[in-house]
Amino acid sequence: MPTKIPIQAIIDALINHHGLVSLAAAEIGCSPRTIQRRLSDDRRVKDAQEDAQGHLLDIAEDKLAQGVVAGEWEKVKYFLSTKGKSRGYISSQEVVIKKPEVNEFDDMTDEEVRYRWM
């Protein structure tokens, strides 16, 4: 019978790998499905995963902010397009609708069209 993996080992592995289940499972030698079951069954495990993912998001946002402050244009543009919408910084697309070509039958009566096809 397989050995039950302690909750704390799962929590530690999730923290070490920023909430990524497959990497955490590899660290502790179990299947990702085992961790998925624990995520469903134990709120402490789910909270640890959410906290680890939130921490990674904070790191990514900090790197983005550093890029904005440094004047890195790609990061400035991205930041404005996502966080600056309320100030009018939005990406827009121009949509051009072409008028259909005039159909030679548009101005004809039904009788004229029938005559034309005969």
User: In terms of per-residue confidence, which ranges show pLDDT below 50 for 5 or more consecutive residues?
Assistant: none
Termini distance?
Answer: 86 Å
- Strand tally is 0
- Proportion of residues in β-strands: under 5%
Q: What is the domain total for the residues? A: 1
Compute the average pLDDT. Answer: 89
Structural class: mainly alpha
The ordered string of helix (H) and strand (E) elements is HHHHHH
The helix tally amounts to 6
Describe the protein.
With 118 residues, the chain is mainly alpha-helical. It has one domain (7-117). The protein is built from six helices and no strands. The longest helix is centred in the middle third of the chain and has 27 residues, at 43-69. The chain starts with 6 loop residues before the first helix and ends with a helix. 12% of the residues are buried. The model has no long low-confidence stretch (mean pLDDT 89).
Outline the secondary-structure elements.
Elements: H1 7-16, H2 21-28, H3 32-41, H4 43-69, H5 73-83, H6 110-117
Helix pairs in contact: 1-2, 1-4, 2-3, 3-4, 4-5
